[in-house]
Amino acid sequence: MAEAIQKKLHSEMEKYTQMQKDVSKSMSARQKLEAQLTENNIVKEELGLLESTNTVYKLIGPVLVKQDLDEAKATVTKRLEYINGEIQRYETLLKEMEKKSEQHREVLSSLQQEYQRAQGLTVGKV
Amino acid sequence: MAEKGNSSTEQLVGIDRLREEHQKVVRDCESRIQHWNKVSGDYEALADRLKTLPDQLSYDIMVPFGPLAFMPGKLVHTNEVTVLLGDNWFAKCSAKQAQKIVDHRMKYVQRELDDLHRTAKNFEARVGFVKELEHVSNSEGGFVDIKEEVGNNEAVVTKGKHRIAHKPNSKPKLDAVLDLDEEKGESGGESGDEGSRKGILTEEELWARLDELERQEEQQDEQDRLSDTADTNGEDTSSSSEEEKEGDAAHPVNGCPKPSWTSVPHSKLPPSRDMIEEEDEEEGSCLPTIYFSHTVEPKKVRINTGKNTTLKYSERKEQKEHSKKKKKNGHNNGHSHHELHKITTPADIYRLFVDVKNGEPIPRKSILKSRSRENSVCSDTSESSAADFEERRIIGRSFSHDEATHSDTSDGITEEDSPTAVPLHPASRFEAFSGTVVEKDPMPTVVPHLTIAPPALPTILERKQEEVASDVAPPAQEPPKRVSKFKAARLQQK
Fold this sequence. Notes:
The structure holds two protein chains of two kinds. Chain A is mainly α.
């Protein structure tokens, strides 16, 4: 009895840690996106400061590729849109994950209690 | 007490944790502030450099050559810099423009710094508060929490029994109901008047009221039936003195029904009541009479024979009709109407049908036949089409027992808008009933032994009536027909 519960608890625990890993992963991704957002915002503002006589380059790999100013502006705006969309996506993803992990936690706690009961009063080391 | 101590230590642990977290946040903020300060300094240096860079055309500089060596060189194009905007974007611009960009970045950095300072301050304050709290809970500052345990002594001592809230009696005694009902009958007209005049009753209130009255009426009916069966000859013990007065002496033409009828146009309810025997009321005080009162309030239809036997009808009939009007040709009208008669003996049926001939009350010879043409207010069928009339005749033949229902529904159809329509068509007074009542020559020889026709007919009748209604419907004919029977009768009198 206790064995079975322990097994189950173990698998649940693994799942839960996996879940937490996912959560933290998407969390960091989201933070990255946030940083990119601010960076791109700054770029956009500074492109606004430039004049049409200025030449704009994009570093692609090891080379600087010459770009038109307007084109650059359009590209940056597009990129901003994309980043915003990504942030939204991650937001919903995170919410879902949080919900799931909450459920997992509940399952885990109930399982733990069961396990403890099955083992008498000895506390399972999980 | 042990528990208390435990909880306080727990609290202390919590406070410690809280303080730690707050301090962590503060530390984090501080480090970030340092970082931004450095960035800010860098940018300041850069701005300085950019300011002075274009001062000369070229500079002699030592160019770093790997991590170890420098070699002499020359810096040219002093007014030409390439700025990394971020996200791998570069822009070639003059030193002046570069300065602008630097300024912009400085602004951003400053903003960040401000934010961080504010956050740090906030959390420092919190740390201070937590520290204070720690002091307090450690009772170092001479502060003590006053805690009072609330015991489980729920058994509050009460003397005697607990009081029970009694519900008001839902069913009062029959006698009381009877009395109440009589009183209501007396005041019904006026109160209905008021209600309709003010128009304050909402529909829900109205229905609630009607339901209540219906209940009362049921009880009343029961009572009536009991007393009726007790003495079939008519000495109705249940009829109140007030009713007897009405039946014998008082002539209610000027009494209850009329004022209430006049009030009806103000109400939302169309005057659905049809006064079959309105005319009869004027004939004499001791006539067998059927009174219909037109009120929103408890309506009673009394059928009063000369013997003081009074039958009361609930206003459920009216209610049904009301609902019927709402639903436009509901199917339940005739049926419920008959249920309500509570006819227990054949004799009761005769009380329902009374004719007046030459000013004298004549009990209908046969209730299967329509009333005599000369006496009926609704005798004028000339307006209806021939087919219509024919059909009606058929109905009359087969179902004349339900005559009352006939005229009822006919009024329901024709009188719907009568209150407004009446003044518009004062001349066409008979047309209101042209479609519905079948008039036949009285057949005095017919012995009334057929009267025990079961009142189960109405369902069929109803169907027929609907057909009739659709027949009457042609819009060209309709407007002139919208005259109330009462109006017609009164106009006739004038």
